[in-house]
Write a structure and sequence with these properties.
Elements lengths: L1 H11 L7 H12 L7 H12 L11 H22 L30 H22 L2 H13 L3 H16 L4 H19 L4 H12 L9 H7 L6 H26 L3
Helix pairs in contact: 2-4, 2-10, 3-5, 3-8, 3-9, 4-11, 5-8, 6-7, 6-8, 7-8, 7-9, 7-11, 8-9, 9-11
């Protein structure tokens, strides 16, 4: 979609800086709405199965993530435009060009199944890291700290898990954030004697919503250079968007997926 946005910018006179970051954020919001929409959701789904818990269906996060996505995109359309830099003229330093390309993968090519092989490697690494966090007792220590802060209130624990996911996914990779927070959420739900499902949904969405740091998500990095964005540009739009969708997630999750 980046070349399409560039072409749209040149044709309409809109600056690419007003379009590229909202496009990245919208793709994250939409992708997080299904189990297969983001690699992070797939990783957490794999961790759930590896932990011996019931597998989630493809629309497990949809009832929470879809309203968040709709309101988030409305926010981007109405308010987001005002928070983004004006950028340069419609030329944006790009020359108008058209490409036509065709690709054919030959039989027995090493490209066949490449995405599936890469996802499997990432999932394997995530399971390994998650196991290490559990085996060292780190997950229990973090869970005890959260319990000390929130007491026996499962909603307070859910908030802490979601905030931890958002913080980590904007500092390290989303896969690592999911791997670290998953055993913590398991430990919390077990110690509180409540369902793990609300925590799983919070994990999926919290680790997907990487709006503040351009390095937090692949699509952010893809639009950073062509949009001439700085870290401050991402934070200026990403922080209020995170607060908005975070509030929606924390309100809807315990209502739809009861403890």
């Amino acid at each position: 979609m980046i070349p399409v946005v560039k072409d749209l910018s040149q044709r309409t006179g809109l600056t690419a800086t007003k379009l590229l970051m909202p496009m990245s954020f919208a793709s994250i919001l939409g992708g997080a709405s299904t189990l297969i929409g983001t690699s992070t959701n797939l990783i957490i789904a794999g961790l759930i199965v590896s932990a011996g818990l019931p597998a989630f269906n493809i629309f497990a996060p949809t009832l929470v993530a879809l309203p968040a996505a709709i309101l988030g995109i409305i926010f981007l359309m109405i308010i987001g435009n005002r928070l983004l830099p004006s950028g340069t003229s419609a030329e944006d330093g790009y020359k108008k060009r058209r490409y036509k390309a065709e690709f054919m993968v030959i039989e027995n090519s090493n490209l066949i199944g490449k995405t599936i092989k890469e996802t499997g490697v990432i999932l394997g690494a995530a399971i390994g890291l998650s196991t290490a966090v559990t085996a060292t007792g780190l997950s229990d220590m973090i869970a005890q700290g959260i319990t000390a802060i929130g007491g026996s209130n499962p909603f307070a624990a859910l908030v802490m898990v979601f905030l931890g996911c958002v913080l980590l996914t904007n500092v390290i990779t989303n896969a690592a954030a999911a791997s670290i927070m998953f055993p913590v959420a398991i430990s919390l739900s077990t110690s509180l004697g409540v369902s793990f499902t609300p925590f799983a949904v919070a994990l999926m969405l919290g680790t997907s919503y990487a709006f503040i740091n351009p390095a937090g998500y692949q699509t952010n990095l893809m639009v950073q250079e062509p949009g001439n964005y700085t870290f401050i540009d991402f934070a200026r739009l990403g922080l209020p968007l995170t607060l908005l969708v975070g509030a929606i997630v924390l309100i809807l999750t315990p209502i739809i997926y009861q403890f």
